Amino acid sequence: xxDYVSDKVQDESRQGEAFAPFTADPNxxxxxxxxxxxxxxxxxxxxxxxxxxxxxxxxxxxxxVADADxxxxxxxxxxxxxxxxxxxxxxxxxxxxKAKPGLLIGVLGCMAERLKTxxxxxxxxxxxxxxxxxxxxxxSLVGEAESGQKAVNVLLSRDETYADIxxxxxxxxxxxxxxxxxxxxxxxxxxCVVPFTRGRERSRDAESIINECRELFEEGYREVTLxxxxxxxxxxxxxxxxxxxxxxxxxxxxxxxxxxxxxxxSTSHPKDITDEVLHTIVKYENICNYIHLPVQSGxxxxxxLMNRTYTKEWYMAKVDRIRELIPGCGISSDVITGFCTETxxxxxxxxxxxxxxxxxxxxxxxxSERPGTxxxxxxxxxxxxxxxxxRLQEIVDLQGRxxxxxxxxxxxxxxxxxxxxxxxxxxxxxxxxxxQNKTIVFAKENNGLKKGDxxxxxxxxxxxxxxxxxxxxx
Length: 474
Ligand code: SAM
Ligand code: SF4
Hints:
Number of strands: 21
Structural class: alpha/beta
Bound molecules: S-adenosylmethionine, iron/sulfur cluster
Distance between the termini: 44 Å
Low-confidence stretches: 1-10
Shape: globular
């Protein structure tokens, strides 16, 4: 379990989730598909695009593998373990196919390009391999696979953003939705496979983003999270209106849809987040006071090897600026332990920067070498696994303490909470989140509230992961 710690953007509990979003009579559909998704929120958002494309062609979704004519697995390559999980699932599906010969199996997403030959020809695990920029061709690829050909499209695009596709919301709570604002990544963090699997960065048409967010609001959604690998480099030129839309402008336009629509975003790269963005957060009450600002390491030497293009001091100055302009802002991080050449002192520097930043939570991983990345080509993966894991355990413990301390500071405070459902442990309680992205659980008190409502809650107790409180009627 230790290579991965549950998080709220890449939710461990959702890994592998299968969806059945259509309630219509299954007989209406010519075929049924089953889709399982792994990895980050962007991958889950992509599965919603895939579902939309397939649905338009008359395919319906099912939650039961046994009912499916098509099985898709939307894959992640970010760490080796994610790939192993997918491979195991494909072997399971191969057994299902033995008993049902007409069944087609497809691999989607980040593993497609790298493993297409292996999956299709060597191991004969799948019938279709489709990269993240090729989902529009899925219906014709299904046709090819049905006629017995091996169907492959892993071409990466410089301009595909699926801007015009209205995603089918899968397994949604009806309150929060992810909205992709860009694809790919132009940064070359040396440990990271994303620029190779998802291609060059491109920003989606601003109008299509605003329209999607507005439609979500009209359907009753009350929170959108704008997604990109590096949202601060969002840049869209609207040639018709002769205007440039930066990320700060985009945030503002989404916030203006309605004060009742909360706006979140992820991920911010410390080198790119601007004062303009911070001022925009301050200006609009409905833009959440929460920033995911991955540090990766606290050692400037390691950061340089990681090609993160900032130093420890630069990062700390960003945290100071956030705290100065947005007092009480929630900050979270991603941290990697055991990157190439990391010494005990580098590791201690990471622990120090975590303390300094006072993260509310972090997503923590040990370094996993990925084929084709700069680090794989340039550096030795020289930290033994037991040391990587020991260091990971130390930062996990530290983060546990920091999260608890951060929660204790909220005791006695009142937060505006967006209710997103029943508490998992106790249906007599609501669960919701504060602007700072903390989960708060509180008694329902039979006062007619429902999912999607806002309510003021006073914090009276806390655990490491959750705030507990009661409703304040004012
Ligand atoms: N674009 C985001 C950013 O720059 O912060 C993050 C994208 S990545 C999908 C999510 C996280 O996975 C990274 O921030 C990093 O901590 C972790 N990660 C990426 N490659 C990794 C690797 N090779 N080994 C371990 N963790 C990795
Ligand atoms: Fe990977 Fe770096 Fe791009 Fe994030 S910013 S996706 S870590 S290359």
